[in-house]
TrEMBL record:
The keyword DNA damage does not apply. The lineage of its organism: Bacteria, Pseudomonadati, Pseudomonadota, Alphaproteobacteria, Acetobacterales. Coiled coil: none annotated. GO terms for molecular function: CoA-transferase activity. It comes from Acidiphilium acidophilum. This is CoA transferase subunit A. The keyword Cytoplasm does not apply. Keywords: Transferase.
Length: 233
């Protein structure tokens, strides 16, 4: 199977459709699959459900899809850095399903592991638990959460080989590994492409069996979401 594609647009050409569910790796602006998001925007697909820890920032990352109004619904944990998201949500133009961050991560991991649902104590007695099954185990109350499986997962990796084995770098690892396992089609953008055997097997984070297509980036712009510096002495 040929996994390496020349561009993000080519890799997604016969995959994208209106109304699909897309899992996007990244946390803030770290490890975000920017080129794949740009290709989704350029394709013009609409009514998307996006599963992501957050919504990027205005005009950057998933913020691009919000500005072009291609997103109908978001399943997220933290969206506080995007004013466009806030305006659309408050105007009733965007649906949102908020999740505690650990619950969101476990829902995605469960989906990738073939687990349809699980129970967690997080959120019991709050709005998060409304409309969900509750159970008591060993004297504690739990809420049932469903695993998440998407139509497409887009991820960013530091290094990958032509078989799709991926390695992530530092905090850019974040949600990418679990996203890669929890979709029917996973497309990865990589900063460095190597040959099979060039990555130590013990260092592989995402095995190539999960990755169907790969795009090699010719340029990577690593933005800083919030710059914090000390005053000069």
């Amino acid at each position: 199977m040929r996994k390496v594609f020349a561009t993000a647009t080519e890799a997604l050409a016969d995959v994208l459709r209106d109304g699909m569910t897309i899992l996007s790796g990244g946390f803030g602006l770290s490890g975000v699959p920017m080129s794949l998001i740009e290709a989704i925007r350029s394709s013009g697909v609409r009514d998307l459900t996006i599963v992501s820890n957050n919504a990027g920032t205005d005009g950057v990352g998933l913020g691009m899809l919000l500005e072009s109004r291609q997103v109908r619904r978001m399943i997220s944990s933290y969206v506080g850095e995007n004013a466009t998201f806030a305006r659309q949500y408050l105007a009733g133009e965007l649906e949102i399903e908020f999740n505690p961050q650990g619950t969101l991560a476990e829902r995605i991991r469960a989906g990738g592991a073939g687990i349809p649902a699980f129970f967690t104590a997080t959120g019991f007695g709050t709005a998060v638990a409304e409309g969900k099954e509750k159970r008591e185990f060993d004297g504690r109350h739990f809420v049932m959460e469903r695993g998440i499986v998407g139509d497409l997962a887009i991820v960013h990796a530091w290094k990958g080989d032509t078989e799709g084995n991926l390695v992530y770098r530092k905090t850019a690892r974040n949600f990418n590994p679990i996203m890669a396992t929890a979709a029917r089609m996973t497309v990865a953008e990589v900063e460095h492409l190597v040959q099979p055997g060039d990555i130590d097997g013990d260092h592989v984070v995402t095995p190539g069996i999960f990755v169907k297509r790969i795009v090699v980036l010719d340029h990577v712009e690593k933005r800083i979401e919030q710059r914090t510096v000390r005053k000069r002495a």
